[in-house]
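To: structure desk
From: M.T.
Subject: fold request, one chain
Message: Could you run this one when you get a chance? Sequence is below, nothing fancy, just the single chain.
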Amino acid sequence: MNSTLGIVGDFAGQYKDSEHYYEYLGGPRFHARREKTTLFAHALFGGLTAGSFGSSVSGFTMGYGGGVDISANEKMSIRLVQFDWLPTHIGGVWDKNTLRFGFGVVFGR
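Reply: Done. Structure tokens follow.
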């Protein structure tokens, strides 16, 4: 939208033994850009599907967090770290103990 505020979509999957979790989130992201570094924070909202072999449940989830990107060139950055707290609501129960850490490559700006 501009150099300080953007809209982001976040799609993730986690796998452990026979269980899987898929998250699909979207919302505002705030940026503080410097010459080669971008700090960001976001508040994301969406859904979660959790399951194992043939059965799954869906619910509501949120993602509050942020991170640091370092520019490699005009079209690509290296994500040094991203941290998110992911409270989820499935079947009438809140789980507030999920944290997510990430790193990687970011395309576009």
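Reply (cont.): The first strand starts at residue 5 and ends at 16. Let me know if you need anything else for the meeting.
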